[in-house]
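Folding follows sequence. Below is one example:
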Amino acid sequence: MQPPLPPPGGGAVVAVGVDLTDVPRIRKALGEFPERFVKRILTESEAVYCLSRPDPAPHIAARFAAKEAVIKCLGGGVAFKEICVERAMSGAPSISLTGKAAEKAAGRKILISLTHLPEIACAFAVLVESVGS
């Protein structure tokens, strides 16, 4: 039997995190505290993308779930705005980190997968050793 291949974009898996977010709960928060909620959770680039969508709630919920999943990978102690979900032209998501989140990642990479339905959003994050570490 051959050993498993390392995950794409990285080496050995260090940690995983998963989160489910209730889209109606996000929609309610957006209705009650739109500006404050967005500024507390999203980076500027995330806000621009999400708020440009016809229904921003599922997109914000997916990013909220992503941030929670990443925080779990990193063992907690980081702020939402230190984690940014970026989107390639293909639509593929990736994660960029700043501040304490970047320090905790210590040069490792985070792979992310997002999905959402009208009622729920899900994110799965994998912290991997960088290739060559």
Q: What stands out?
A: The helical segments are 23-32, 34-41, 44-51, 56-74, 99-105. The longest helix spans residues 56-74.
